[in-house]
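Sanity check. The docking grid for 6-O-phosphono-beta-D-fructofuranose depends on where the pocket ends up, so I'm generating a full predicted complex first rather than guessing from homology. Inputs follow.
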Amino acid sequence: MESNKGIRRIAVLTSGGDAPGMNAVVRAVVRTACANNIEVLGINRGYSGLINNDFHKLGARSVDGLLQRGGTILYTARCMEMLTEEGVQRAANNCRYLGLDGLICCGGDGTYRGALALSRQGVPCVGIPGTIDNDIGCTEYTIGFDTATNTAIRCIDKLRDTMQSHERISVVEVMGRRAGHLALNVGCAVGAAAILVPEREADFEHDVVERIRAGRINQRNHHIIIVAEGYAMSTQEVADKVQAETGMDTRVTILGHIQRGGAPSAKDRIQATRMGYYAVHALMEGRGKCIVAMQRGEIVDIPIEEALEMKKPLDEAMYAAEQSISI
Ligand code: F6P
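Predicted complex below; grid placement will be based on this.
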């Protein structure tokens, strides 16, 4: 990587839904900056802190202990003002007033839209993917996804014990907003009988009911069904329909925000460290309008406009493999 092209002071913020590993990103950014004689400001509550001048200085020692801590010490928010011209102007003016040579923003696609608006005002911005949804088109991986997947798995393993005892079906709702990546990965890792995601229009009879019936013929007395929160039917509707069609007792569990908490996994700590380090170097090398991404296992950066256009398809091969062996 190249040497520093005049970067003296930068800021870091976390925005959108929090994700395990965001703190590790803040640590990596601060430590990398300090090692290159760059001052760092931590902006509180995402873009709203930028608009309202809510920040504090961060040094190498102020990020001690952050690698293993869930949540984000910078707090996070979804800032509606950044969707307005006036909000963007205020944020950009504050960046100039604070003498920022760059801004690093960790979050999802809403966060990148804010970064794009600011970079168009002349503020160099680098985005880092941090969301449990893993729904960012330009990157194979988003920080927090692995921890959230593991958290969901641990919960569902416990549910399986009680479902087995009572010969019931557990219908579990997994987060993911409008995407099914988290649901698919969780479903694969728990051996779900059926996985319902927004990306696939399910034939309920074929994809759910017949699979439960086939399982019963094969002496399987309990099942797990995973429903992504963005799926067309509510999780309760799915459970009611399954019970009506199969005669088996169902129970609904909505995992909810528990999936966003907890200490980051090794994978999330490592990716946060790599991406945070990379983001500061991208600014130092003068690439201040990009998203840090993982492609084919390598860390790269993609121009923000291009990144926002990219879509992430569901992993159909994973879906097919899981479905063929889970009954
Ligand atoms: O984007 C992360 C996420 O956890 C989604 O999976 C979920 O739909 C949403 O945030 C929930 O947001 P909130 O914390 O505002 O309820």
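Relevant for the grid: Residues 17, 108, 131-133, 175-177, 229, 260 surround 6-O-phosphono-beta-D-fructofuranose (CB under 6 Å).
Also worth noting: Residues 9-144+264-309 form a domain with the Rossmann fold fold (CATH 3.40.50.450).
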